Amino acid sequence: MRGRGARVLGRGGVRRQETLASVSCALAATCLVLALGAVPPARTQAPIKIGEINSYSGIGAPFTLPYRQAVEMAVDEINAKGGVHGRTLEVLFRDDRGQPAEAIKHAQELVAVDRVTLLAGGFLSNVGLAISDWARQHKVMYVAAEPLTEALTWSKGHPYVVRVRPNTYEQGRMLAEKAARLKHVRWAAIGPNYEYGKRAWETFRDRLKELEPGMQVVGEHWPALGKIEPGPYVTAILNQSPDALYVSLFGSDWLAFVREAEKRGLFQKMFVVGLLLGEPEYIDPLKTEAPEGMLVTGYPWYDIGQPAHRQFVERFMKRADREPRLGSLVGYITVLSIAEALRRAGPDPDADRLSAAFRGLPVTTPIGTITFRAIDGQSTMGAWVGTTKLDRKRGVGIMVNHEYVPGERVLPSDEEIRKMRGGG
Amino acid sequence: MSASLLLVQLLSGLAHAMVLFLIASGLSLIFGVTRIVNFAHGSFYMLAAYLTYSLAARLSLGGASFYAAGLAAALLVGLLGLVVEVGLLRRVYGAPELYQLLLTFALVLVIADLVRWAWGTENLTGPVAPGLTGAVPIAGQLFPTYDLALIALGPLVALGLWALFYRTRYGILIRAATLDREMVAVLGVNEAALFTSVFVLGSVLAGLAGALQVPRQALTTVMDTAIITEAFVVVVVGGMGSVFGALLSAILIGVIDAFGVLVLPRASLVLIFVVMAVVLIVRPWGLLGRPGGPDAAGAGTTLAADGGRVPRGLVAALVAALVVIPPLLPPFALWLLVEVLAFALFAASLHLLMGAGGMVSFGHAAAFGLGAYGAALLMLQAGWPMPLAFAGAPLVAAACSVVIGFFCVRLSSIYFAMLTLAFTQIAYAIVHQWYDLTGGDNGLLGVWPPPWLAPPLRYYYLALLACGGGVALLALIERAPFGLTLRAAVYLKGSVFPESLTVGVSIQPLVMVLLGGVETLAGAPVGAAVYKLLDTVVTRYTEYWQAVLGGILILLVVAFPRGIVGSLRSARR
Amino acid sequence: MMLRVRDLRKAFGGVHAVDGVSLELPRGEIRALIGPNGAGKTTLFNVLTGQLAPDAGDVWLGGERLSGLPPHAIWRRGVSRTFQITATFATLSVLENVQVARLSHARRSLALLTPAGRLEVERARALLALVGLAAQTERPAGVLAYGDLKKLELAIALANDPAVLLLDEPTAGMAPAERGELMRLVVGIARERALTVLFTEHDMDVVFTVADRVLVLHQGRVIADGTPAEVRGDATVQQVYLGEGA
After folding, report:
1. Interface contact A9, partner C, CB < 8 A
2. Are B493 and B376 in contact (CB under 8 A)?
3. What chain B residue is nearest to C73 in terms of C-alpha separation?
């Protein structure tokens, strides 16, 4: 040792101060905890509190702000009309950071400390499942907004969870039914390496195989979520020379993939089917680089004729000073659904009354009436299926020749659901 | 596979490798000279990408806008590096080296929120590089000209660095400082100026890498964490501090990654970590590193753990408080306390590795997560009653740790840390993809305690017993039972997720230990309590929790450069 | 007086490694610093070169106060040292090793980005010739024989044209014959350049043949300071030091 800043520690010192530190920290902690717990319980005329957990940072962060803006808009609109049973709605937003464990911590805190009446939100599937499982155990109503995994309402479903958005099974089926008409034989797939990516492909493939038994799978590719280095994937896909490619990539992975695929001529060589890729969330950031001619599910808000929807878009754009995303529509419908269920559940809602209220609940939304099914709590909100095209005036990709497919058309029957729940 | 496919795949891998090289060379350089494990390197990279995006839109230089913006962004990030080094890092060079790591971790949080605040969270696609937008046919396939340009640029940068290192006097200093920085200081070189210049140079390289990614990738607020692990892997495989090792390993990893796409499509999560583990087992100091070279964990070894024997009366008082007060607390406070207790034990066991064993483990999460999975699986699959599964968890973790430890303990310092990281990632990938057993990324749900334990208060006492006993045991034996980390909180949350195995979770307890102070076991639980409570309180009141938490961490590090307990002790002297 | 130390103190926790040391070294004197293990010799060196800040006391070089200056500033004022454990840069060439030490003269940072000038390289070569390493200038330091490494260290220490040379166990680990050779080299250079030398050493034969005077440290305090003969005859020294089997 040649005196390298010698960090030798003394051994003789009394350890009292260290102990003092430990004890004072523990006391500080205790005070803090007491303070957290000291929030008084809700009184009858107090607002009805909704605990909203979503990925405001982390991997889901790019998609949740337009959702939140629409949630706030819906709450303000409902409160302006006098709220529900004379009580206003109040939403407490919490950031799950894209981590299930974090989401559960918030669920605990929202219910125990803030005394929320129900939980809502969720973007990532695994976060949604985690909140749902906690809600089942603690008998708290959870209204899942955006998580897509079908397990949420089916194999892992329970009375205290409902979901607003159409799940992967429904959307995969919608696409398969259109794609089957095109008679492509050789199929390849690429998706993020986690459950959503794989299930999204499997539901599509299975349905397509039913309709077109001659289809073949020539390649499957699973880049790590959020970390794609697309060049090698594009080359690999090109060399498998499929007739068509199914894509369940999203977010930054999809954007990077498009750039590399365009330069290497992938879109000229095969037909592409993309789950969700017509949603403004995923097509707008590409601006004029958006590939044309893809079969996608999405949200052509610029082109939906119903007056109620036009007014929704107008109000949203005025308020948020931006164009809506699908998340905005889902957020808006989520709050409308919660308000409707609260009305039906009566002035003193608890989890069981809310659960009962949601069964078969019709909700009037900007895109027509949707129903929360009695059997599984899945809403019948559908999706738009169409083809992508560049709108050179606006400088973004849009959907053309689109059709709204309501959930009823693709959802499995009650009989099948019972089988899934029994067997799952 | 045709020859043309192999050629194009090789080129694709090389283009990726060049970006990896740029970011890793800066990281390696900074580590080599200053011994700082700079977690904020990825943040600098992200910031440069966003700056390039904004500057390119504002500059009106026609085709040159993108290139001018990229250069300006890299230089701006270099300037930020200057501010960070002079304003923050320099204040803690005297502290154990790991505190610099804590500081850079805090910077990651602050910069992440800065980007979120300035550019929003939505994905952005930046400009393409004018003049390099197309593709040229190579062996019958189209290959992007931009990637070709990258493949040419990488060696140019490497050559420039080589000339700097071997043909200038500054280069001799840098190479000398990489070998023995304290001796360089004794030889009359102004160490502070050298460190600053190297930190700035490294930051500029990170900035350059970020700017060059703009035409290839989308900008996201998670770019920083997405790249940093990969960059560390490249640095470690190449040999810490060796810039040319970084080049070699970037090429190796880029190319293996590209061919992995063809051969092992499902291995994308784990491939490069397997490469790292193999390299480190065969050549523990990396490809071009030197045996017995730079030693980042020196802080751990020079800090003899002195056990921190707390007077019995006060321990008794604390235990009494933890036993008596909880019945007065609301359920959420109990949940929070259980979490603090679990992390206190987790941090304490990590402290033992660091303090007594002199090892920094980035893979501690593996033990933590495997313990959690072990308990959950024993309960769900084997149908064990909960208390039994609870006791079985550490055994599962210990068994895995023995295997990992067998390969790891013969390494020293940073390589040990990185190999534990590799095993953690491998464990993560297995858990993530083994759906049937582990539920994949959805985790294991429904792991709830039996009804007699369900009331939070009863559960709290069980956790107190387990964690308190664990900490006491650690204090007694002063050894590192890797697997003693059992996760009590698992049961209150009722589920286990692969996230519990990730590097992020490994960093958390490291932060806790450092925050409390590595010098004493008492520091770990204090650090755990402070971190968890800060986290919980801050997230309640602001959506910019990362910036606030990071800011508080920076203040704490600058104010308490030896950890809270350590600083209080020396203040008394 | 070349080097003057007044009441220097340095403690670690409760241990007083250097406990009120005062000493004066006239120009050109070669003084040995001896004492049992843990006497505080290395700590004293570290304080003198600025690697450790003293708790109290001053160090003066000529008329200039050194204590409180950072290591590189002390080096530039002409105090250089070698280390107990051989410290060279293994993968740098022998010549580059000496260049590192000479670079402190390049004050302007831009000058650092240019290749070393001819004059600069010539000086480094001359130093290496002086210590007998002229034939090995291009080899990496890591492959040198142990004795040659010690010579390289000496060349590095001489690179800033020092006034005071602090040698921490210069012959540690060498064979007895080599020790004599190295110390003759040191003495020759020191006499020729009128260098002031303070060195620690375990080998008493070396101490008593080379040193003009000997200073004995025990538990951080000076217990004797005199000619080799005086120290050899000192009862206290014999009791605490020579008695311990040296």
Report:
1. yes
2. no
3. B188
> Residue ranges of the domains in chain A?
48-167+305-381, 169-304+384-409
Which chains does A contact via 3+ CB–CB distances below 8 A?
Answer: B, C
Q: With an 8 Å Cβ cutoff, is C86 touching chain A?
A: no
Contact B564, B527 (CB under 8 A): yes
pLDDT digits (tens, 9 = 90+) for B337-381: 777 777 777 677 666 655 544 455 555 556 666 666 666 776 666
Contacts of A269 in chain B (CB under 8 A): none
* Residues 277 through 296 of chain B touching chain C, CB cutoff 8 Å: 290
CB contacts under 8 A, A 43-102 vs B, are 56-59, 61-65, 93-95, 99-101
The CATH class, in words, for A169-304+384-409 is alpha beta
Residue whose entry in the numeric block shows the structure tokens 């921190």: B308
Cβ atoms < 10 Å from Cβ of A296: 28
Tell me the C-alpha to C-alpha distance, in Å, between residue B547 and each of B91, B115, B210, B315, B551. 20, 10, 22, 35, 6
* Average pLDDT of the segment spanning B25-50: 91
What superfamily would CATH give domain A48-167+305-381? Response regulator (3.40.50.2300)
> A77 vs A88, A144, A330, A332, A345, CA distance in Å?
10, 21, 16, 10, 20
In the predicted structure, residue B327 carries a pLDDT above the cut 70? yes
CA–CA distance, B300 with C95 (Å, rounded to integer): 35
Q: Residue A33 and residue B116: Cβ atoms within 8 Å?
A: no
Amino acid sitting at position A73:
M
Q: Of A36, A193, A223, which has the smallest distance from its Cβ to B332's Cβ?
A: A36
> pLDDT over 70 for what percent of chain C?
90
Question: B472 is written with which tokens?
Answer: 């006491």
Cβ distance A226 to B333 less than 8 Å, yes or no, reads: no
| DSSP per position, B355-424 | IIS----S-HHHHHHHHHHHHHHHHHTS---HHHHHHHHHHHHHHHHHHHHHHHTTS-HHHHHHHHHHHH
C169 interface with A at CB cutoff 8 Å? no
Task: Find the DSSP H helices in B214-311.
Answer: 223-238, 243-263, 271-282, 298-302
Which of C12, C15, C85 is facing A2, going by the closest CB pair?
C85
Nearest to B187 among C13, C91, C100 (CB): C100
* A139 inside 8 A of chain B by CB: no
Is the distance from CB of B504 to CB of B548 less than 8 angstroms? Answer: no
B382 has a pLDDT exceeding 70: no
Amino acid at A143: V
- B383 — contact with chain C (CB < 8 Å)? no
State the pLDDT at residue B407: 58
Contact between residue A249 and residue B30 where contact means Cβ atoms under 8 Å apart = no
Predicted model pTM: 0.81
- Which residue from A177, A204, A180, A178 is spatially nearest to A190, judged by alpha carbons? A204
B164 inside 8 A of chain C by CB: yes
pLDDT attached to residue A378: 96
Complex confidence, ipTM: 0.82
Residue B227 has pLDDT above 80, yes or no: yes
Nearest-by-Cβ selection for C43 from A3, A9, A11:
A3
**CATH 3.30.70.100 at C3-89+142-244, yes or no:** no
Residue A329 is predicted with a pLDDT of 97
